[in-house]
Write a sequence for this structure.
């Protein structure tokens, strides 16, 4: 039995066992969204009924993929599960633009953070995060940040220069991927002008200069690295 | 032509074209280490000589993998390259322990950071990072942190409670992987007692409670999530 999210490429399902039941439990795009609690209950009840349950997601289930909640639900029911990493959009997006998230000379680390915390939670202190990212040379990768991008930009500007390079990548790793390079100071303006929408990741930091260099100097010959 | 790092599983090479030249350019383990500049020159010269060059690494080349430097060297020589993501040890390690790096209730994000910056660079302000990780609920994943772990621990304790759960995972994703759970306050002591050595990742944050829960309640039946 396959429980399949909306962001999973349909071509993946061609590899499924022909006898497998395929259930689409996506949370976006369709007319109805499947509540997380329902998915967890289904995983538990079908496994206890003797089914071999495979949960298919886009990206990495343990990076903003709610894999932690699903593992907890299974564990509470005494069910063993194994999780296989995928490529999270924060990695896939910048890689597709041939640009690293860390670099010995420019970035000593990277922060993956949600721009959209659970309702009711205290919001992220973006000013403090910006100061730390600046001082410790960290690339910022913001998931689900489009709707809050005006607020995030204004707050980050208290700790990072307006000239800090940024890129917004919509539909990272999908055939419909598109992106726009900008700066922190022009972030919101660029999102509006280019009509960039969810799902997008926003990457802010000096490493993004690599994307810009690429666009200015299109390479001549071909190799793989 | 394949340029292969030491951390690459030899089984991967069985998939190589039988006519391919395989060159081991690892930087650890052997009697001699291959300088990074030599590897970059080799990639450029062989590509310009008409070879199809594949650079094989363990983990993800754009997360502490020096992929950024190699892409720059190629770009300067006018050579086009494409990079394929791998699973970086910071993801593979905690996933193998069935534990998420982010969690809606416990961690709004994750920081991947090197414990071992380039010689001559100003060191990371671990106190500031600890405060930000605490306030913004970020999981800390420290690469190459074993040799500096005493200093890192002492500094992080200024911003995070000594009781913060931690886990050290040596040889993440390899058959020789082993780990020890601990707390930030007992980190150095645990590394010494368990003789944990490089390459290891250190994960610090509330999500690590998931590893501990797993060890206390071994699951009963089997499924895949």
């Amino acid at each position: 039995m396959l429980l399949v999210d909306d962001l999973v490429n349909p071509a993946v399902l061609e590899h499924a066992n022909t006898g497998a039941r395929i259930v689409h439990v996506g949370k976006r795009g369709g007319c109805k969204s499947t509540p997380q609690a329902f998915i967890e209950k289904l995983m538990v009840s079908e496994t206890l009924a003797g089914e071999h349950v495979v949960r298919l997601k886009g990206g990495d289930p343990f990076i903003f993929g709610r894999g932690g909640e699903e593992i907890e639900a299974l564990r509470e029911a005494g069910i063993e599960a194994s999780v296989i990493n995928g490529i999270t959009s924060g990695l896939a997006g910048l890689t597709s633009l041939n640009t690293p998230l860390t670099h010995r000379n420019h970035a000593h680390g990277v922060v993956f953070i949600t721009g959209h915390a659970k309702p009711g939670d205290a919001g992220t202190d973006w000013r403090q995060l910006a100061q730390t990212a600046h001082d410790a040379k960290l690339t910022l990768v913001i998931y689900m940040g489009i709707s809050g991008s005006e607020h995030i930009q204004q707050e980050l500007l208290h700790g990072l220069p307006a000239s800090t390079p940024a890129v917004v990548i919509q539909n990272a790793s999908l055939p419909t991927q598109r992106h726009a390079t900008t700066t922190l100071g022009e972030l919101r303006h660029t999102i509006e002008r280019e009509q960039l929408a969810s799902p997008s990741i926003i990457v802010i930091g000096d490493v993004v200069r690599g994307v810009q260099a690429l666009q200015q100097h299109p390479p001549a010959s071909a190799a793989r690295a």
Notes: Chain A has seven helices and ten strands. The beta strands of chain A are 2-4, 22-24, 54-56, 79-80, 109-114, 138-143, 165-170, 178-183, 200-204, 221-222. The domain at 89-214 of chain A is CATH 3.30.950.10 (Methyltransferase, Cobalt-precorrin-4 Transmethylase; Domain 2). Chain A touches chain B through 76 residues (CB under 8 Å).
